[in-house]
Amino acid sequence: MNKKKKSKLIKFLTNPWTVGIGLVIFGAFLNGKFKWINFSKIFEIIKVGLSYIGKFFIYKVGLPVWLLMIISIPFIFFFGIMITYYFKKNPENKFLNYTEDKFDNIIFRWEWKDIYKTGKYDVYDLHKHCPKCKCILNSKSLYSPGRSTRTSELWYCPNCEYKIGDNEIPNEKDIIALISHRAENKC
Ligand SMILES: [Zn+2]
């Protein structure tokens, strides 16, 4: 590489915009890898900060931006660790541990699913469990004599013979509403 090309490359690499945009792309990459951390916001702040610091050091001190970037790497990792720690400790996400409750004597268990990775969670994989032995309840349709249409559903425990009629259990929509309500109100 000749001198002219080299100086052009250095000029490009030390341009605060290159550094800023580079960090944002790096941030977006990390954001894709670690969905639960909003890296892009952090890098947006770093971008603005670095462009100011970069300008200051280049014109006042003569320290190149690439050196500043290397120096800032441990800080970026430190911030990443701090933020991961914060989100893990964040009481707002404590409801993710709320995955079991009793409604009308029946034990319900479920999981929380992040809808399209938006940070908004929905109840999914909701199951009814036997109040006696905690086994998953199965259901079978009951037909009235002389009718071909299903008249009701019977929930039974395959383990201990526990039985309960569908009409004695709140419907799934109500259960999901109750779970969301309790999760929002910290149970
Ligand atoms: Zn049972």
Layout of helices and strands, plus pairs?
Elements: H1 3-13, H2 16-33, H3 39-61, H4 65-89, E1 100-103, E2 106-114, E3 121-129, E4 138-143, E5 150-156, E6 163-165, H5 172-184
Antiparallel strand pairs: 1-2, 2-3, 4-5, 5-6
Task: Describe, in plain words, how this protein is organized in 3D.
It is built from five helices and six strands; from the N terminus they run ααααββββββα. By secondary structure, it is α+β, with helices and mostly antiparallel strands. The protein has three domains: 20-60; 62-97; 99-186, no CATH class. A three-stranded antiparallel sheet has the order 1-2-3, with helices on one face. Strands 4-5-6 form a three-stranded antiparallel sheet, with no helix packed on it. The protein is rod-shaped. Bound molecules: zinc ion.
List keywords for this structure.
single chain; 187 residues; alpha+beta; 3 domains; 5 helices; 20% strand; binds zinc ion
Q: Overall pLDDT, averaged?
A: 79
Number of domains: 3
Name the quaternary structure: single chain
Structural class: alpha+beta
Question: What is this entry, summarized?
Answer:
This protein has helices at 3-13, 16-33, 39-61, 65-89, 172-184, and strands at 100-103, 106-114, 121-129, 138-143, 150-156, 163-165.
